[in-house]
Design brief:
Length: about 120
């Protein structure tokens, strides 16, 4: 009787510590425990040209600090200094009368309450 209890207890402890054969990891990249994953390189200095739906250049956005601040130059060569604002998705920059919100290669420019959709180049 004691042998059966010992055998069952040992088997249970062994099985509790084993990983099931059917579990698969969802991550596509795995690293050994003693190595860290390398983060993607972020370009801190970027220049975007904003183009309207009618294929006209609206202006340019230039940043030197990974979009914490940026300079917007409109088609009339007037410049505006923008700062990063809170947004749920994408990057949002503003300074009051100018708001630029974009994600990927498309976005919205709001200048003096006039909204213009744009693509970046």
């Amino acid at each position: 009787m004691n042998f059966k209890i010992l055998l069952l207890t040992t088997t249970f402890i062994f099985l509790a510590g084993c990983k099931p054969l059917t579990s698969k990891s969802n991550s596509k990249v795995s690293a050994p425990l003693n190595q860290s994953l390398i983060a993607p390189k972020i370009n801190e200095n970027q220049k975007l040209v904003l183009i309207s739906n009618s294929n006209k250049t609206i202006g340019t956005l230039i940043t030197n600090d990974n979009w914490e601040t940026a300079t917007f130059t409109d088609s009339n060569k007037k410049t505006y200094n923008l700062t990063r604002a809170v947004s749920a998705d994408g990057i949002k920059l503003n300074n009051g009368p100018i708001v630029v919100h974009f994600k990927g290669n498309e976005g919205i420019l709001e200048k003096n309450s006039i909204v213009t959709h744009f693509l970046t180049k």
